[in-house]
Specification:
By secondary structure, the protein is mainly α. The chain is 73% helix and 1% strand. The chain has a two-stranded antiparallel ribbon. A hairpin with a 5-residue loop joins strand 1 (11-13) and strand 2 (19-21). Helix 16 packs antiparallel against helix 17, helix 18 (454-479) runs parallel beside helix 20 and helix 29 (725-745) packs across helix 32. It is flat.
Amino acid sequence: MLHRDLKPGNIMLGQYGETLIVDWGLAKPLGRADVDAATQVADDRAATVFQEPALELQSGSGSTPTQMGSALGTPAYMSPEQAAGRLDQLGPASDVYSLGATLYVLLTGVAPQNDDDLGVVLQRVQRGEFPRPREVKPAVPRALEAVCLKAMALSPADRYRSPRKLAEGIEAWLADEPVAALPEGPLARTSRWIKRHRTLVTSGAAMVLVALAGLIAANLWLRAANRREHDAKNAAVAAQRQAEAARTEAERQTARNQALLALAQKSLQRYETLSRSDELTRYGMEKLRGDLLEAALEFYAALAQQAGESESARAGRADALHRLGGAYWQLGRMAEAVKAYNGTLDVYRALERDYPDNAAYPYGAAKALSTLGEIRNEGYDAGAAAPLLAEGLQRFRRLHLASPGDVDLAARFAYLHSLEGERLRQLGQMSEAAEVFARGIEVLRSVKLESLDVAKSRDVRYQLSRALSQLARLQTHALWQFKPAREHYDEAIAIMRGVYQEAPELGDCAFTLAQILRNSGDLYGREFYLEQAKAAYEEGLAVLAALEQRHPDVPHYRQERAELHQSLGGLHAPFEPGNMTDDGLAHAEQAAAIGKQLVARFPEQVDRRVALARYQSSLAHLYLIRGRTDEAQAVYTEACDTLAAVGETTGKHVDVLYTLAEIQYTVADQLADSGRTDSALALLEQCEQNLNRLTSTAPQLGEAYLSLANLHITRSECFEASSRFVDAAAELDRVAAAGAKTQSMATAPWMRSTMQAILSLAKPLKWGYLKRAREGALLELAKSGQFDQLQRQCRRLAEVTGEASDHYIAAQTLAASAGIAAAAEGLEEPKRQETAESLAAAAVDELRLAWEAGYIRRTRGLGGLLRAQPTVKQMLEDEQLQRLAQRPDFQQLLERIRAENPPRRPTAPDAPAPSP
């Protein structure tokens, strides 16, 4: 029987360990006699061993006859003649080939043919092309490879004559006998003989080896002694030559490194000269400065890789990294700036560790820390700035105490105080920030200016003016300490004007003078000295104009110009639209335009986004009071989008929270004015949440409480417009609370009197709202179908007023509203009755509360006559309560009133009896 599809998948183990060949679908009898004999043998075996029915061959090809030229079987395992469709050549050698291919899989773990293209596989099988087993898996024994290759020979004549012969070849290998497919040479035959006579060979070899080892050892000992003496002489000569060569090479490398270092230092010195030139200091040249510094850093890195870095080379690299960070900062590439400054810090810390006696390295590390802290401050990330500034302060404090006369140290130490003060201000710790600012000012005041040259004296005075201005700004906007703030501003302006007159060419002096003038103008405006405020702003703009002629397109100069335009725009419309001028609107529009350009240019700088949001909010407000509603709404939307892009890290920052609340309040005010009360109330709720977060973060920030007072006033107006008079009255109570907090923090008499006026206005407004509620205005809610809102208002009435009589008034309103609900055409029948029932039940509950509070009595009596309290009889006669007359809960309440006059107060539950 010829199987024609032998492969691993068709060979199985039976339940008793026998080998089974399955899937005889392509099998073909070679001769009837042979088939009958095989069948008889199978039958005999089945009868004597298995007692199972004989297997019957099933044709997988159905009734279609086998055709010449068609390939039958599995391509990867079929013989070449089978792959060629030469069915007339098929015989036992064909099945031998398939068994050889199966052995190939056992040896290598893969099929001899693995191509996905069937045509390619058939062609390769016909040509006998496949990798030898040892090429696939080198560990395959050579004898088994020979057996496999003979079984898979291209020509049937070169294969084993039958599967039995193939099996004999494998069994010979298993028995460690020669394999016919692999002729053995003398070496292989000897190896096989040694394996079979291992004991004899081992004993003889051991005796020979012992004798041989003795002779060799004696000879080697003599030769080694001679060689050691010779090698010792040669090693001494070689060591001497090597030492001389190493010394020469070290001297050459040292000279080379010194030359390279000198070249690097010369490059940096050249850069220093260029950096002080007018051409390179102009803004717009930052990229060139950055390229020069990057080239210097590459030079240092190459030097370190070639021969290691000396102390001076490492210090030079730290200096270059610091300057590179500054160039990146000016370019607005903040991530790269931080990376460069961190690199500076790492190098200085390593130098400080390796050379503890050099004070320049602790100073360099402290300077890098302060710069990193400043970047985090400007990015409104006070949390990340905290450890940097804390370590920097600690380092500068030690350095300043060690060298109190060092002016540069004092200036840096004071500047770090200003950075830490700003960080605390961002977190709302206003008093602590003021203390830190004051300590920095003390450090600068302690410097003896008369002992300094002109340049250093100017630098100290410049730093002192900045510190005074920072403290005054905090006192103005956060602590409301206007008198000391004015004194500090006046001193700061006087100092900076003197510095500016001495050196008008110094850009930072002119810029800082303009900044201090603006802050001073803000204080003048707050105290209603509008002419002085305007003069300060205009002087600041004039200083900036002269500065920008020398240094055009400097980002922070342009930002300050936007701030001055913003301040002037607000100054032209302090209270009423009638005070508005075209100049004011033009200033506000210019501020927003500059802010938008700067954000587009420096998208990574968060402080510029916050500033733009402020400009946009102010501009939208000016559009609004001019009646340009559509433009106002568009700019308000832009302001909210600008602030939303600031990010999560700034969520607790004072400036961000205040700016967001300010925008939300202004938009809500606009919505309320246009009659969109519900939208206004929703936005006021968000605004209040941000203001509450602000007061929680910065409890000393008076501006937040003032904003809360204004918010409650606006919300009370929204409630009044919606007929929610009780909510409006309650909101005015909250005005009083916020106003009282504001008044307690105010130091200026005008501010205290202003808040007193607001509080005085709130009280009559509240009682006006309550009067309207008591006189039936709440029924407007019922008439408009707002029954749920009406019920909430009635339940809150006595809660807000604290008067028991208001429970009775609420009951009357609810009972009347129940009648309105019962007849409401806008409600379907089930909902109509459900609403009327709910309102009536609420009315009875309010009557119960009025009685329990002692307001309703069984009979009038003398006390009731004087206080006009209603009796049971009057309740039954009250027209507004007539709808309740037939209700069981109302009748039960009347019975209780008759039986319990006055009502019994609830008592504590009886104590448990003591145990016997």
